[in-house]
Task: inverse folding
DNA sequence: CTTATAAATGTTATATTATTACATAGTGTT
DNA sequence: AACACTATGTAATAATATAACATTTATAAG
């Protein structure tokens, strides 16, 4: 039997799976070279292997890049359908990052038009403050 | 006469002024090393001098960092009072970046609370799409 | 005006993040 | 089998950013 065509289409390659698993298990965003260090025992030895997998995973919406931190977290928002509409909260003390899933927020931003009436196909929003623990 | 105390408080140091002028004149976001290259004739020779000035200018709200591009633009939003609430549109083809000043948007985001009722002290939002010219 | 303090500068070296380029191997389709 | 496409392996290097330390300049207080 093996993997059906549809399943295969949605499945990850070997390196992608290794790197996704690591990020998905992590309670905090991981940086590319932290990832590299952690997967070297699994045969991934060089930066391009990591960055290529990260690029694909981002494209697929399986992970997101936290731009202000150059770090990556797994998507936990409605089965990763929202690679084009991302929002995060970031604690400026402990650096805890949480993906925000607010229907209201995403509706507001997805339909936002600027002064010229221009709509956008994608957005990324990062909120900063202190998390519960750090206040 | 020279510069009064109040004026002085709001004035920039030599390196800050040189670097701000360059960014302010630029129609597009500038990267740190592009800045470095362009100010070497004015005596700024090393990366730390650039990054230090950039850090201060960002703190003051005179410029903003476009996180997804690692580049800096001058603030053109209500006299630079909004370093803590920034929104930009970015064209994915020509890379044109525009600061969005929408009272509605900033009001919505400034007062946004997450599921736990948490409010944030700062946010940065980047919209992506195609600008008028590129469509 | 001088002394203390803080802010800014100059400089060298190095750390961190990311990409180019090219060769090879696997996968799915016809 | 032949083709196109995706993924991988590898070395080198480019691009972005900071650490550490010495020195100078600006500001405020006595």
Result:
């Amino acid at each position: 039997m093996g993997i059906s065509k549809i399943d295969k289409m949605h499945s990850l390659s070997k390196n992608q799976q290794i790197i996704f698993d690591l990020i998905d298990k992590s309670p905090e965003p991981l940086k590319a070279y932290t990832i590299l260090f952690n997967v070297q025992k699994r045969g991934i030895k060089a930066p391009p292997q990591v960055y290529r997998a990260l690029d694909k995973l981002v494209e697929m919406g399986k992970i997101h890049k936290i731009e202000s931190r150059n770090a990556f977290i797994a998507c936990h928002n409605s089965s990763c359908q929202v690679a084009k509409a991302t929002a995060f909260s970031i604690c400026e003390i402990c650096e805890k990052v949480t993906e925000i899933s607010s229907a209201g927020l995403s509706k507001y931003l997805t339909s936002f038009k600027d002064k010229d009436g221009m709509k956008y196909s994608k957005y990324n929003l990062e909120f900063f403050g202190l998390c519960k623990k750090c206040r």
